[in-house]
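Annex B.
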Amino acid sequence: MSHRPAVLPGSPPHEQSRGAGATKPMAAPRTCRRPRDGQRFRAQAAAAVEAETKRALIRIGTRGSPLAMAQAYMTRDLLKEAFPELSEDNALEIVIIKTTGDKILNQPLADIGGKGLFTKEIDEALLSGRIDIAVHSMKDVPTYLPDGMILPCNLKREDVRDAFISAISGSLSELPEGAVVGTASLRRQAQILHKYPHLKCENFRGNVQTRLRKLKEGVVDATMLAFAGLKRLDMQQYATAILEFDEMLPAVAQGAIGIACRGGDDAMGAYLAALNHEPTRVAVICERAFLTALDGSCRTPIAGHARQASDGSLYFQGNVATPDGKRLLETTRTATFKAAEAEKAGDDAGQQLKAEGGPDFFNW
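Porphobilinogen deaminase, chloroplastic: predicted structure tokens.
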């Protein structure tokens, strides 16, 4: 019994015809398209590899917490809405970067170092070219920026107020003597103890979900979170009460998202310019000027809020306190609602409180 040798696709016609009794080469059928098919498959494979390795047009750097991711997704969606070319597959990529503040959770922020705890590693990735833009909660951004980096964009601000959360009380004023309020913020601690010295404050760190879990477990009697964060996570139902400014003045730039890029990157600058909300940017400029004048950081209980009044002017409120709340200095300013005037008003307010506090006020 004879066996016909195996025939490989694409073999020359005379090889395909060899076998028992073969006497002459067999002509290739005119209908054979295998060489052309091979070219098509190779082209398809090359296209697949190119698509797989093609770098995103914009790489968005962010922390990995649920809130930070929600803010990065918000940025991504706004870019897609504003620029149709960014709606294509793989045009936008979110890059998660772990920061010092994310790694060290068992110490108060003030004890770790204060400035740049949630931004340093992301800024380094931006400057090294690993990402193209960086999305930050503005209240985490130091008053200085690294050389080579600019922050030209603030998204429209969310509700700036703090949310009070408790299972045993409807408000701060109703908490019983000795009740424990969990907070990692010296600003909140100072304002609480200033108004309610019968309460206690304990360091209480972690993301929104972690803090709510600890509260449910009875680790503390109450806590406070930025209402903006709860809203962006669609968790506003957990707020027991929303605190007005006379009870809790918010942190500088609370509720604002900032997006940074490299200086001189005109393409990214153009994208971000389209997303910028100028009223938010002007208010944040004023508040950060106040913070700069006081040389503020996570070690300083500073609060400040600027907004556009009904008559179109800028109105600013600010305070600085000792961590125990025993001394609290306050000030206000009005100005034209323009960036240069806003910055001047914030700086002037900060210089006033710095002079009032004296050289020993900030030596804690």
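Residues 1-25 have pLDDT under 50 and may be disordered. The domain at 278-357 is CATH 3.30.160.40 (Double Stranded RNA Binding Domain). Further annotation is deferred to the next reporting cycle.
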